[in-house]
């Protein structure tokens, strides 16, 4: 197969994956922030978050496979999950590999969510806040020269702006009655240090 | 004659985990309603079989996994 | 063999062995007059505790028909069986928790029992621990309570116990003495109920099967273990043998704690305390029911009879209102207490209880809409909390509404037409968890016991 096509396919699906994962991040942040309105209720936000995450993984798979199948650069399947060992551009590719590792953990814990402790799920899911910037940097920094092309920079800026905007929404003071009421528990029922280690 | 054992599926919520997100009632308004403070009121007994699939979606929709399906074999 | 024959036979046997058992027909079993709390006197009066196994104890308790005395009335034998089964299946030693907290401020019985007969409670806890192979017994009391000192003194007389026994102080909050809250506090210092998903008889203190029993339940257990089911059932009813401790308070001449055989008519209990024969009384504690004293005079004190008469056993307290006392005002005050006492971890309690408290107060000020709001909200709140706390508040409110819309409809009309009423609703004691009001009786001080002659001792 013409490796040029594979190379272009890898870049394109990489960009699409980034956009999709950005959308997934935004929708996840909005779900936690209880966002939703009459035309697009919260359940729809969550459903779209989950659906798009699967779509993003599909595009990511094509991105990875096409990059390896195209033999132009020295990459093999181990480099996908073991970071910083690639024969070509190990650092920037490695960032992508770390992101893939985190994504695998997020994916597995989400699939098995009902059988895991809520804290474990939450901690792993939170690593998305590390995964996403790693993916962004991987796309920007890898030295095929494409990382600094205008169209990709524009995409990067739009994605960062979207995530920052949704974080601004998320980090506004939580005035939901349930949150406020639960907060009073710390005053009324302070947890004692009983030294209980049995 | 083959006798089939029925599995009864009931919706249950953990009131301590529930944070009144309300997604369960959005997913399944025919069975789950919200009280005036935003917390779910569930049907008391086992669900009719045609609603079980929707109930699974409702339980999956809960962001804090407070809603669960309880299965009992009859 | 009838209970009489069994009791007589046991009496004879004990006589032969050289130790007399207490008269099975006397009802002063837990709190006999003139009994000191020392270990020497305790053993001289009752003799030693026998040995036991899990199956023996569960069978004994089930045959005796012992019900929990902490308010829920769950059969103790079944509880012990459940813990014993979990010990086998999980291969972990059990933990026994004696709940001596008595969180309901209307009740004094556990405090009196622990002060007068601490060794009986400790006997029961140790016996259950031996039966279940537990290696730890916790005596749970509230911070700085008199019970704490009584138990510590009693333990000091027993340097060698079959397993580790400690007195643990629990935060002085109403909700903290709920069974799962005790376990959660012992595990993490957070004294709030842990919900109904993980049963404590399987996974409790330290993840181990845990038996939580009320102080009085354990004291009764200690007597049953020594003297048998025949002795236990020599008084009481066929369906509910034995005795119970009752706290009588409010507008009575001789408030205090009395031990009665089940089936004893309420009129007799109230007569000993010098209560009026008519008027309203709160039966069962802050999560109890309002009853008309004249209507329940002949009702025997037992779970079945009280329930049939629209009352409830609850924590075994009876608080009598004075003539002209206001059921509405007292209920509003208690509902406000329930709202403040919640754990703040589930919606129906965090929002539902303050709402119905506000509704009851509004009803007293003449808001007719409050009646509809209460009728709408009570069934919505019921059963949807993380523990039984909101259910108790709902049951009390429903009982008050039933009284106010039937027997006291004239009085309710007076409130609704803006007249209010002259009564000072400060009769039901709410302890130190509520804001003190001038002239309001706080938690009754002193450990008064009303004995059979109606005299204090």
Can you offer a commentary on this structure?
The complex is a heterotrimer of chains A (198), B (74) and C (457). Chain A has 198 residues and is mainly alpha-helical. Helix content of chain A is 70%, strand content 0%. Chain A has one domain. The longest helix of chain A has 30 residues, at 3-32. In chain A, 26% of the residues are buried. Chain B has one domain: Alpha-Beta Plaits (2-Layer Sandwich), CATH 3.30.70.20. In chain B, strands 1-4 form a two-stranded antiparallel sheet. Chain B has a two-stranded antiparallel ribbon with strand order 2-3. Chain B has helices at 23-27, 52-61; strands at residues 7-13, 33-34, 40-41, 67-73. By secondary structure, chain C is α/β, with parallel strands linked by helices. In chain C, 44% of the residues lie in helices and 11% in strands. Chain C contains 17 helices and nine strands. Residues 14-18 and 432-447 of chain C have low confidence and may be disordered. Classes of the chains: A mainly alpha (198), B alpha+beta (74), C alpha/beta (457). Chains A and C meet through α8 of A and α8 and α14 of C.
Radius of gyration of chain C, in Å, reads 22 Å
Number of strands of chain A: 0
Give the count of helical stretches of chain A.
9
CATH top-level class of one domain in chain C: Alpha Beta
- The low-confidence runs of chain A, each spanning 5 or more residues with pLDDT under 50, are none
Mean pLDDT of chain A: 88
Strand order of the largest sheet of chain C: 6-5-9-7-8
Largest sheet of chain C: 5 strands, mixed
Order of helices and strands of chain C: HHHHEHHEHEHEHEEHEEHHEHHHHH
Structural class of chain A: mainly alpha
């Amino acid at each position: 197969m013409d490796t040029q096509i594979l190379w272009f396919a890898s870049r394109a699906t990489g960009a699409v994956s980034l956009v999709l994962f950005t959308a997934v991040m935004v929708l996840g942040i909005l779900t936690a922030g209880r966002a939703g309105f009459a035309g697009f209720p919260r359940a729809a936000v969550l459903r779209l978050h989950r659906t798009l995450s699967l779509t993003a993984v599909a595009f990511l798979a094509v991105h990875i496979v096409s990059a390896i199948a195209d033999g132009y650069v020295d990459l093999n399947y181990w480099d996908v999950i073991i970071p910083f060992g690639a024969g070509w551009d190990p650092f920037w590719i490695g960032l992508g590999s770390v992101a893939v590792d985190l994504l695998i953990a997020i994916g597995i814990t989400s699939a098995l969510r009902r059988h895991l402790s809520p804290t474990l799920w939450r901690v792993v899911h939170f690593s998305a806040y590390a995964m996403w910037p790693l993916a962004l940097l991987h796309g920007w920094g890898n030295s095929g020269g494409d990382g600094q092309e205008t169209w990709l920079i524009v995409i990067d800026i739009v994605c960062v702006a979207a995530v920052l905007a949704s974080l601004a929404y998320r980090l506004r003071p939580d005035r939901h009655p349930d949150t406020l009421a639960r907060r009073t528990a710390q005053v009324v029922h302070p947890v004692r240090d009983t030294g209980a280690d049995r | 004659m083959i006798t089939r054992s029925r599995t009864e599926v009931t919706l249950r919520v953990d009131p301590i985990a529930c944070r009144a997100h309300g997604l369960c009632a959005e997913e399944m308004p025919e069975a789950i309603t919200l009280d005036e403070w935003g917390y779910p009121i569930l049907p008391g007994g086992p669900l009719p079989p045609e609603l079980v699939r929707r109930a699974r979606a409702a339980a999956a929709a809960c962001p804090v996994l407070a809603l669960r399906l309880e299965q009992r074999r009859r | 063999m009838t209970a009489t024959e069994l009791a007589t036979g046991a009496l004879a046997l004990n006589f032969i062995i050289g130790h007399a058992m207490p008269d099975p027909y006397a009802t002063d079993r837990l709190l006999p007059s003139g009994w000191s709390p020392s270990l020497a006197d305790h053993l001289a009066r009752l003799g030693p505790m026998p040995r036991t196994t899990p199956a023996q104890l569960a069978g004994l308790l089930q045959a005796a028909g012992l019900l929990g005395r902490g308010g829920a009335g769950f059969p103790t034998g079944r509880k012990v069986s459940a813990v014993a089964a979990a010990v086998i299946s999980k291969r972990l030693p059990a933990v026994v928790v004696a709940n001596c907290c008595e969180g309901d401020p209307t009740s004094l019985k556990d405090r009196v029992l622990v002060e007068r007969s601490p060794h009986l409670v400790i006997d029961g806890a140790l016996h259950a621990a031996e039966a279940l192979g537990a290696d730890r017994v916790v005596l749970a009391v509230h911070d700085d309570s008199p019970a704490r000192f009584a138990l510590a003194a009693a333990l000091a007389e027993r340097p060698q116990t079959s397993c580790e026994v400690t007195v643990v102080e629990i935060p002085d909050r109403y909700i903290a003495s709920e069974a799962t809250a005790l376990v959660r506090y012992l595990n993490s210092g957070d004294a709030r109920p842990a919900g109904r998903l993980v049963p404590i008889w399987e996974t409790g203190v330290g993840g181990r099967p845990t038996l939580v029993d009320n102080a009085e339940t354990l004291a009764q257990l200690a007597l049953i273990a020594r003297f048998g089911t025949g002795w236990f059932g020599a008084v009481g009813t066929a369906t509910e043998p034995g005795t119970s401790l009752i706290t009588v308070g409010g507008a009575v001449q001789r408030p205090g704690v009395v031990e009665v055989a089940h089936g004893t008519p309420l009129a007799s209990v109230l007569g000993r305390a010098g209560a009026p024969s008519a008027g309203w009384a709160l039966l069962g504690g802050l999560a109890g029911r309002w009853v008309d004293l004249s209507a329940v005079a002949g009702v025997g004190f037992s779970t079945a009879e009280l329930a049939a008469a629209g009352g409830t056993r609850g924590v075994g307290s009876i608080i009598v209102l004075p003539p002209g006392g206001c059921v509405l005002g007292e209920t509003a005050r208690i509902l406000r207490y329930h709202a403040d006492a919640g754990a703040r971890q589930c919606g129906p309690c965090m929002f539902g209880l303050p709402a119905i408290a506000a509704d009851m107060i509004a009803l007293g000020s003449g808001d007719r809409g409050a009646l509809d709001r209460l009728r709408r909200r009570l069934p919505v709140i019921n059963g949807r909390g993380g523990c039984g706390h909101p259910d108790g508040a709902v049951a009390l409110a429903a009982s008050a509404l039933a009284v106010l819309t039937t027997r006291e409809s004239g009085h309710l009309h007076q409130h609704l037409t803006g007249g209010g009423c002259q009564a000072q609703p400060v009769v039901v004691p709410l302890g130190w968890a509520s804001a003190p009001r001038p002239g309001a009786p706080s938690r009754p001080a002193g450990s008064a016991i009303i004995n059979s002659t109606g005299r204090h001792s």
